[in-house]
Write a structure and sequence with these properties.
- This protein has about 140 residues and is an all-alpha fold.
- It is built from 5 helices and no strands.
- The protein has helices at about 5-30, 45-50, 55-75, 80-105, 115-140.
- Helix 4 (about 80-105) runs antiparallel to helix 5 (about 115-140).
- The longest helix is centred in the middle third of the chain and has 27 residues, at about 80-105.
Length: about 140
């Protein structure tokens, strides 16, 4: 069965998500000054670091679900549809968790390069997660055997 263009687009989003998650965490641990939205001298720095370091497991789940989804969608299997829906839902959840913390702790003020990166991550999670779900849902009948 030929994959619809929208499914190929979702595969692309999944590939982007897996790569971005890996890049984010490698940068976080290897060169934190490029990604952390709070400077080490900030009074709430340790709270910020503790919050962010609660995410690797959940981000790992999103990446694994997306990777399984990519493989399954590539093969047009129903389990690929399921796992990519799970990845999309995970993206929404993580984006909302991040957004709430960021707003409660004024992470975007001032809007430094690092804060802009954080804002971009939140926007991408909250835009691409629902987009994946909508595109897959519109093509759901193609996964019924």
């Amino acid at each position: 069965m030929k994959r619809p263009g929208e499914v190929n687009f979702v595969i692309g989003i999944g590939i982007f998500a897996v790569a971005a998650i890996i890049l984010y965490w490698v940068t976080w641990f290897a060169a934190p000054e490029f990604i952390q939205a709070r400077a080490p001298e900030a009074p709430d720095y340790q709270i910020y670091v503790n919050f962010e370091q609660a995410f690797p497991l959940a981000d790992g789940w999103l990446a694994i679900a997306a990777l399984i989804g990519i493989i399954g969608l590539w093969k047009m299997r129903d389990w690929g549809f399921l796992f990519m829906l799970l990845a999309g839902s995970s993206a929404i959840f993580l984006g909302l968790m991040d957004l709430l913390y960021d707003l409660e702790h004024a992470m975007f003020v001032p809007l430094t390069a690092e804060a802009a990166t954080e804002l971009a991550i939140v926007i991408l999670l909250l835009a691409l997660g629902p987009l994946m779900i909508v595109l897959l849902w519109r093509n759901r009948r193609k996964f019924i055997v």
